[in-house]
Input
Amino acid sequence: MSRILVTVGTDHHRFDRLIGWVDRWAAAHPDADVLVQHGTADPPAHGTAVVMLGYDELVAEMAQSDVVIAQGGPATIMDARSVGQRPIVIPRLGRFQEVVDDHQVAFTAWMAAKDLVWLAGDEAELHDLIDAALAEPSRVKIPPERGASAATIDAFRAVVDPLTERRAGRRPWRQRSPAGPG
Output
């Protein structure tokens, strides 16, 4: 039996779009063992649903799963990669009130371009990626990464710093003086 873990992360915004997409896939694949950490979204009708998993439990589930499906947050992606999983990611979108802005879009696009994640842009693509991962597991299994790479950290900063600058009207954190905020 295939094990699939779905996580929406810890953001308080609902991620109903991802939950619905996975629920419809799970309905068509009753033989799969699907665990969905759904946060504030309504639980799916298919599979096992939990509101939240503790960090250690989440990472252990990632390590034991055949496929990890996740929201596009950097921490979630790096946790999956740390245990040898190339996750399928779906970025949260501001226009659906899934997050405050579209910072996950640029980050996940960069990660996908480097083949560090599989990026699903719509429901059909997500379903195809799940099926591909289950058909050829070696495509999503990677050597475990222990610690974030400098390139990933730099990419995250390149996406997030401009967003925080506009929001706060301040210089990026790495340019602030040690005496206090800019």
Remarks:
- Strands lie at 3-7, 33-37, 48-50, 67-71, 88-90, 118-119.
- The first helix runs from residue 16 to 28.
- Residues 15 and 98 are 6 Å apart (CA to CA).
- The chain has two domains: 3-145, 149-182.
